[in-house]
Amino acid sequence: MTVAGARPLHPGRWLGVPMLLCLLATLVFAAPIRLYGLQLPEPVFAMVPAFAWAVIRPSILAPFGLLVLGLFLDVFWGGPTGLWGLSLLVAYATALVGRNMMSGQSQPILWAWFAGVTAVAMISGFLFTMLDSLAMPSLLAVFWQFLVTVLMFPFAHRLIDRFEDADVRFR
Asked: Which CA distances in Å does 4 have to 1, 7, 162, 165, 166?
């Protein structure tokens, strides 16, 4: 018996496609496009799957996918190797710990959880950068990156809605 509207939980569909979309979105937003002298924002698109995969279901493949996304971000932006991989894994672990409290919550509450998990990832990245470079990164830049990343929540909510009921073992 299947649930109407539920998609099968195939790893290529709930892990591979969001990873590719995050990679493509990162490449598009890195284009040197300027509007009125301002550059496009640089949200951490990988926060969407880091949050959604933990809420959808625990998996052994999700942390490896986040590590790959994080290493791509490190290489692409020229940062220290492992910075974003570790930050995304910390975010995934935070969301995984709060998974039971998030289940069945409304969209505004999940958005607050997403903001909290994003804050944990950004603070982790800030501290890891400070330890690596022995200098303090710009707090204003971290705040703006946090703000535009939190605005990515509707994509995480869509991913959660799409696959939340797909695995009958977790109902």
From this structure: 9, 9, 12, 10, 10
Q: Are 77 and 111 in contact (CB under 8 A)?
A: no
Which two structure tokens, joined as six digits, stand for 17? 């496609």
Residues 93-143: pLDDT tens digits? 999 998 888 877 888 999 999 999 999 999 999 999 898 888 888 888 889
One-letter amino acid for residue 78 of the chain: G
pLDDT band at 157 (very low <50, low <70, confident <90, very high): confident
Closest CA to 58 of 23, 18, 100: 100
Residue closest to 51 by CA, chosen among 158, 169, 171: 158
Q: How many CA atoms lie within 13 A of 155 on its CB side?
A: 19
Beta strand pairing call for 38-39 and 34-35? antiparallel
The residues with which 35 forms a beta bridge, in sequence order, are 38
Q: Token match 């995304």: residue?
A: 88
Contact (Cβ atoms closer than 8 angstroms) between residue 49 and residue 158 = no
What are the φ/ψ torsions at residue 30 (nearest 5 degrees)? -90, -5
Distance between CA atoms of residues 114 and 135, nearest Å: 28
As a whole number of Å, the end-to-end CA separation of the chain is 14
